[in-house]
Amino acid sequence: MWIQQIVLGILGLSAGITVAGGLFSFIIELGILADFADRTHTGDNILLYEDAAALGGALGNLFFVYQIPLPGGAPLLTVFGLLAGIFTGCWAMALAEVLNVFPVFIRRINLTKCVSLAILGMALGKGVGALLFFWNQWGG
């Protein structure tokens, strides 16, 4: 019985490391961290930025999985929300720069007439998904 738990723990840890490595590779490949370093003229600290991003992801997962309480309450939550919002906004802008393939793809598959319907479908799907998620969270 305990051997099965050890094997499952090793498998889960390996899968988590693989997914996290892929995510951080994706973030670095998009050039988000390099863009930060370029805009702040601190390119000599790029390795520090990469280490901080990886450490933040690892610590965030540990706090989430093990439900570790953090001191600081609402002020710390406000600072975290601000920093997470800045990071998410920068990531979205980097994706927008990289994903200029959408206009070419839309023209090639002749989807120009239905783009508004596709966007509406994605928005409705996102809205319904969020509604169902929060409905279940609130005990509906």
List keywords for this structure.
single chain; 140 residues; mainly alpha; 6 helices; extended; membrane; transmembrane helix
Gyration radius (Cα, Å) is 20 Å
Supply the number of structural domains: 2
Taking pLDDT < 50 over at least 5 consecutive residues as the criterion, the unreliable ranges are none
What is the CA-CA span between the terminal residues?
38 Å
From the helix content, strand content and strand pairing, which structural class follows? mainly alpha
Q: Which series of helices and strands comes N to C?
A: HHHHHH
What overall geometry do the principal axes of the alpha carbons give? Answer: extended
Major sheet characteristics: none
Strand content: under 5%
| Number of distinct beta strands | 0
Estimate the mean pLDDT confidence: 79
The helical percent reads over 70%
Please count the helical segments. 6
Question: Could you explain the architecture of this structure?
Answer:
This is Stage V sporulation protein AB. It comes from Faecalicatena fissicatena. With 140 residues, this protein is mainly α. It has two domains: 2-99, no CATH class; 104-140. It contains six helices and no strands. Helices cover 82% and strands 0% of the residues. The longest helix is centred in the first third of the chain and has 29 residues, at 2-30.
